[in-house]
């Protein structure tokens, strides 16, 4: 009689068999994954914008050429003189810097797409990309600043040292230069946003 009661108690206290159905992830995990994917998509878009701005800035700069008749101190007193971007080291520096930026943006866009498809490697990839993004930002920002300073001298001149402005004669050339510098400034802002986005994304991955 006692053995029958013990068996009955064991049956009652026996745990229910596991159903084998996977548990749904908590809402916090889903939200974090969604935010990470959104950051990855924005990162890809910004890198495409960086490539577009670098390409346009270089193309506008290298096509800046204009030939005008200028006064000379001997007969025939006017002679054709061409203005080209490669006559200024600052403009050459701008072309070189944004050529590197364009090539860099192609590689990093592909890496960002890869990180979007495989989120497991995104943290390590972001930590490397943010370093190179900061380095490239320093290069393109200095190139934009140097080209902008030379362009300002060409536009306004400097009466204190006798530098004459040239944009009165070479208006189309100066428009090309100004447009290229404006697009370069936009590319620099895109890089700033990329750096901030990468740092913010990394901060979200730090366990609390």
TrEMBL record:
Assembly with partners or alone: Homodimer and heterodimers.
InterPro entries found in the cross-reference section: CASP/CASPL, CASP_dom, CASPL
A GO CC term assigned to this protein in UniProt: plasma membrane
Location in the cell: Cell membrane
Source species of the chain: Cinchona calisaya
UniProt topology in membrane: Multi-pass membrane protein
NCBIfam families noted in UniProt: A_tha_TIGR01569
PANTHER family on file: CASP-LIKE PROTEIN 1U1
Listed transmembrane segments: 44-64, 90-117, 129-155, 181-202
Family per record: Belongs to the Casparian strip membrane proteins (CASP) family.
Listed name of the protein: CASP-like protein
Domain Casparian strip membrane protein stretches: 39-189
Pfam families with a match to the protein in the record: CASP_dom
Keywords: Cell membrane, Membrane, Transmembrane, Transmembrane helix
């Amino acid at each position: 009689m006692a053995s029958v009661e013990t068996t009955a108690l064991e049956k009652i206290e026996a745990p229910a068999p596991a159903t084998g159905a996977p548990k749904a992830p908590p809402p916090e995990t889903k939200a974090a994954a969604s935010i990470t994917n959104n950051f990855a998509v924005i990162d890809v878009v910004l890198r495409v914008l960086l490539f577009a701005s670098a390409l346009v800035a270089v193309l506008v700069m290298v096509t800046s050429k204009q030939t005008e008749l200028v006064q000379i101190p001997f007969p025939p007193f006017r002679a054709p003189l061409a203005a080209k971007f490669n006559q200024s080291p600052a403009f050459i520096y701008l072309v070189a810097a944004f050529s590197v930026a364009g090539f860099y943006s192609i590689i990093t866009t592909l890496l960002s797409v890869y990180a979007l498809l495989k989120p497991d490697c995104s943290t390590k990839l972001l930590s490397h990309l943010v370093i190179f993004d900061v380095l490239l930002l320093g290069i393109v920002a200095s190139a934009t600043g140097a080209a902008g300073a030379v362009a300002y001298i060409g536009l306004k001149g400097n009466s204190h040292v006798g530098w004459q402005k040239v944009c009165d004669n070479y208006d189309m050339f100066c428009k090309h230069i100004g447009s290229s510098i404006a697009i370069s400034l936009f590319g620099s802002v895109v890089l700033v946003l990329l750096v901030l986005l990468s740092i913010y994304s990394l901060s979200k991955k730090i366990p609390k």
